[in-house]
Amino acid sequence: MEFINSMWSTFIGVIKSFQVADALDVIVITFIIYKGIQFIRKTRAEQFAKALLLLVALWAVSYYLQLHMTLMVLNTFLQFGVVALVVLFQPELRSLLEQIGRTKVVSKYLSFHLANKDAASEAARQIRRGISAVVESAVIMQRDKTGALIVFERETKLGDIIETGTLINAVPSVPMIGNIFFNKAPLHDGAMIVRDGMIYAAGCILPLTRRDDVDPSLGTRHRAAIGMSENSDAVVVVVSEETGQISMAIGGNLVRDLTRETLSDELENLVVPDAAKEDRKTVKKSFRKEGKKK
Prior knowledge:
56% helix
């Protein structure tokens, strides 16, 4: 009974001394733990985490049984565990930090609400021209079964990806896009990067997804599209060379069987900044409702 009273008194004391800073502290730690669990579940770090838990359990048993030699080896290993984690999972850690560092609301506000309205309107028109050219080109390539991989850059800048290709910085048009992905053109195997409605680069190499639950029938282009969408907030359009099917990847999800209308609507919804959509009466939000989610 005394133990229960003591625990209750301790609990009441903690509640009475609880302040706003303590609540903020709990929220921050909860967020870090949540992101850590997400990171482990979505990457190959899951197996590493299991092995690390096993080593910690082995260390606890060794400490309890006073196995001095085992403790010495485990202490040495765990001391360098953080360094090993950074080296082994550098791509995943970079992706995690990029996701945490994205502040879409702030960036959109600074880019469009504080900017000159005329400049924002012209930027939106340029982006829409790029979308229109990509949609028309995708429909033609679908008919001809020409493979294509087109990345729309958004908040996350893709400088490291652009460096793997050839800078173009040209106004998008159906003939230009068709020439880039013509099957005998030197840049057709890589990805085309669209930045602010302009064809910024082509022939770029994208990171492939490391997930093992991807449909085996999907080729390298689709795996690269998923991988790019996992590592950034980019919207990636894929035209299959085998089937002519148009797909779109965003946030690690792939939606297939898009038509001219759905592709145009989704690119308008996802790529054009929110501040530039006020003049439109309706914007369809069907990305997660249409197609087959893979």
